[in-house]
């Protein structure tokens, strides 16, 4: 073996050992995105729309969704963390990546160490909605009702660490009104039960609630952003800050991840594809129709994404600790 061949063999062995060696033809078979919530909900909606937009820049391969739901997204995150780091399994999750380490005493994964960060996808407002037969017709009436009927009112969520849980937690601690939580494995079954008058109140992303608000299948009370939304069907909803809930602001973001150890050249291909997908006019239009804002800033880079998640963990830690809810 000459010197050059020896060097190549050594480099190949080292790269294989560290998992850094990639198949140059990647991707050449379907890619799975693990979505840690139920099908038909807001995280699933973002994932399915993104999967379509990713197809073209990823050599035309199919991008399929695996709904690994339950436990406020921690089951799906654990599944993705353990998956083969070959670029064929990715994870799409929302703010749960930042809230799970604060809310759960024990997790089988570490969000800062067990994932490669690929980029933030979007920011999504939330809406405070009620079942069709709930008596209050606007936020002020709702606040009075929650105060008077607190022992009877239940608040649906998609599990501890979900966006709906976070929003509900903040609502209860800001209003100082404890309500009974009803956890689901995702917002799809939660909103289905809300529309069926089985539960009373839900705070959920506009990507799940806009259609139901437009169809008058739920009552809408407020938005969680600090400014009113511009989407025609939601623009008349007040912000919770306008309604006197000082500092109340919850905006949900979604990000794309790969298991730790995925080869760098594969990560680059996926991040490049993500950047193309985020500029896809069809993806942007679908997002805008549901008040979601597609990311364009430095958070669409792996470093920007990771720094943002760290900042979100720092931002939410004191708020969640003050609300005092934890899970095992
Ligand atoms: N986004 C929902 C939540 O966190 C869960 C889901 O996507 O189904 O409340």
Primary descriptors:
10 strands, 2 domains, BUG, single chain, signal, alpha/beta, 328 residues, binds aspartic acid, D-Maltodextrin-Binding Protein, domain 2, Bug_dom1, disordered N terminus
Shape: globular
Biggest β-sheet description? 10 strands, mixed
Low-confidence segments, given as residue ranges, are: 1-5, 7-19
Q: What amount of the residues lies in strands?
A: 15-25%
Domain count: 2
Number of helices: 11
- The ordered string of helix (H) and strand (E) elements is HEHEHEHEHEHEHEHEEHHEH
Spatial extent as radius of gyration: 21 Å
CATH architecture grouping of the largest domain = 3-Layer(aba) Sandwich
Q: Which CATH class of the largest domain applies here?
A: Alpha Beta
The structure class reads alpha/beta
Number of strands: 10
Written overview of the protein:
There is one protein chain. The chain has 328 residues and is of the alpha/beta class. It folds into two domains: 25-124 and 251-323, Bordetella uptake gene, domain 1 (D-Maltodextrin-Binding Protein, domain 2, 3-Layer(aba) Sandwich); 126-223, D-Maltodextrin-Binding Protein, domain 2 (3-Layer(aba) Sandwich). The chain is built from eleven helices and ten strands. Strands 1, 2, 3, 4, 5, 6, 7, 8, 9 and 10 form a ten-stranded mixed β-sheet that branches. Strand 1 (31-35), helix 2 and strand 2 (63-67) form a beta-alpha-beta unit. The chain is globular. The termini are far apart. The model is unreliable at 1-5 and 7-19 (pLDDT under 50). The structure holds aspartic acid (ASP). It holds the Pfam family TctC. Keywords: Signal. This is Tripartite tricarboxylate transporter substrate binding protein BugD. InterPro entries: BUG, Bug_dom1.
